[in-house]
Amino acid sequence: MVFPAEGETIQIHSYKHDGHIHRIWEETLVLKATERLVIGGNDRTIVTESDGRTWMTREPAICYFHAEHWFNIICMIREDGIYYYCNLSSPFVYDYEALKYIDYDLDIKVFPDMTYSLLDEDEYAEHRKQMGYPDVIDHILKRNVDKLIKWIEQRKGPFAPDFVDIWYDKYLFLNKRRYGV
């Protein structure tokens, strides 16, 4: 399997189950990459929506993607703490063009105090009918919602107390080296 190199910038492409592009993040700096895991960082990166609209992210973020888990986690660093946005998605693939995954609508938002909310259940139900998500995908996603909740409650992976600090420091270091500052 191909994977990006540490210090390289990549795009992130999110698709829908029917194969249509959902969203593109223009530039993410690779902090760690293996066949199974990519951790990246970005700040004020341009995001392009499927309809062509663009917007810019507002804060630094550490992004966690795994080739075996059906979710990815965006850790947003804000003045009042770290917010986590967890996308239920296919495991990622990387093909030199971009890191890619299928977004399956369901999301979990985690607040700095580690309380959380499951979001977009109506959107998931609608898209499941529209795009014909098979039962096997539905079962996988529900198991991964449970897995994510356990990770949150156990402070595992990106929810571990030092995770964001460690990777944000590496992001700042690689960014300085990249720009010669």
TrEMBL record:
Q: Reaction catalysed by this chain? A: a ribonucleoside 5'-triphosphate + H2O = a ribonucleoside 5'-diphosphate + phosphate + H(+); a ribonucleoside 5'-diphosphate + H2O = a ribonucleoside 5'-phosphate + phosphate + H(+)
What are the alphabetically sorted keywords of the record?
Hydrolase, Magnesium, Metal-binding
Q: Where is the active site?
A: R23 (proton donor)
List the cofactors: Mg(2+)
So where does Mg(2+) 2 get bound? Answer: D105, D107, D120, E123
In the Enzyme Commission scheme, what number(s) does this protein have? Answer: 3.6.1.15, 3.6.1.6
Known role? Has nucleoside phosphatase activity towards nucleoside triphosphates and nucleoside diphosphates.
The entry sums up its family as follows:
Belongs to the Ntdp family.
Protein name (record): Nucleoside triphosphate/diphosphate phosphatase
